[in-house]
Amino acid sequence: MGYKVVFTDHSLYGFSDVGSIHMNKVLQFTLADVTQAICVSHTSKENTVLRSGLPPEKVYVIPNAVDTAMFKPALERLSTDEVVIVVISRLVYRKGADLLVEVIPEVCRLYPNVRFIVGGDGPKRVRLEEMREKHSLQDRVDMLGAVPHAKVQSVLISGHIFLNSSLTEAFCIALLEAASCGLLTVSTRVGGVPEAWLKICSFCLLILYFSVVLPDDMIVLAEPDPADMVRAIEKAIYKLPQIDPQAMHLRMKNLYSWHDVAKRTEIVYDRALICSSQNLLERLSRYLSCGAWAGKIFFLVMIFDFLLWSLLRLWQPDVDIEVVPDFDPVYHERGDFSGDIGDKCSQ
């Protein structure tokens, strides 16, 4: 149809198993004609470029953000007489549920004053419940099951430390939500979590470097290994007296804002709009470059789709389709939506 397309990728996929190989080929076909792409981390960008064959200059990195108005710390600081470690995650292999089965009993053995709250559901929940029964930790490991997103904040503020045990992670927005609630975070050093990033101050041209998704005093990293994760949790417990939840929340408001993400995303869409349009033959040639045999199949599929679209245009001409009115920011800011939309469209 010739529309400019911007694709956003939030996932990481491998290259070795059969499922990933087929999915990567589908992605290469799907993205052969996109104008721009957005990834949430540099690791995610590298993964997308390798999987799809997109030119790196077409792929932009825009991190996720957090709604700090929703994720606020508790009004009163929790006592550290009992340390509560919160886990909120899908209980699947990719999220490191098997690591939790080994880490939780060891931490409970070393620290009698530590208690765990585990929120989430999945096929690995059975293993966690078996671990709790085996080590008699029913009074120290609370299994909440699936937690609705609206109730995540109330669970987070009941703890001191947030634990992320993922084996792969493009960005992990859960870390931002926990930090915004004033929790010290412990995470595995995987995917986009440990990558370096920088923030440029446009006023004084200073470049401030941070080593991870969160500054060093907000997060403790560990290898996806039970022993190293236990050591990271020990380090986090010792750091707890230095943590000020309210100060951490204010810092998160400055570091990650959805308004900033929206502005950067708008720039990518504006750049996509000014990209030169290519004719059908130039666009079809991209599909031929997707592989010796796959490229020819993709080419034939797109020819069929184009012919089908042309027939649909004959059956339903463009002139018979109502055109969406241009967005009027003044009208939107005024909030006057009481009038007839048809009247507004006809103006």
UniProtKB/TrEMBL annotation:
Pfam family, one: Glyco_transf_4
Gene Ontology MF term list: phosphatidylinositol N-acetylglucosaminyltransferase activity
Glycosyl transferase family domain segment(s): 78-196
SUPFAM superfamilies named in the record: UDP-Glycosyltransferase/glycogen phosphorylase
Domain Glycosyltransferase subfamily 4-like N-terminal: 2-69
A biological process from GO: GPI anchor biosynthetic process
Name of this protein: Phosphatidylinositol N-acetylglucosaminyltransferase
Provenance organism: Escallonia herrerae
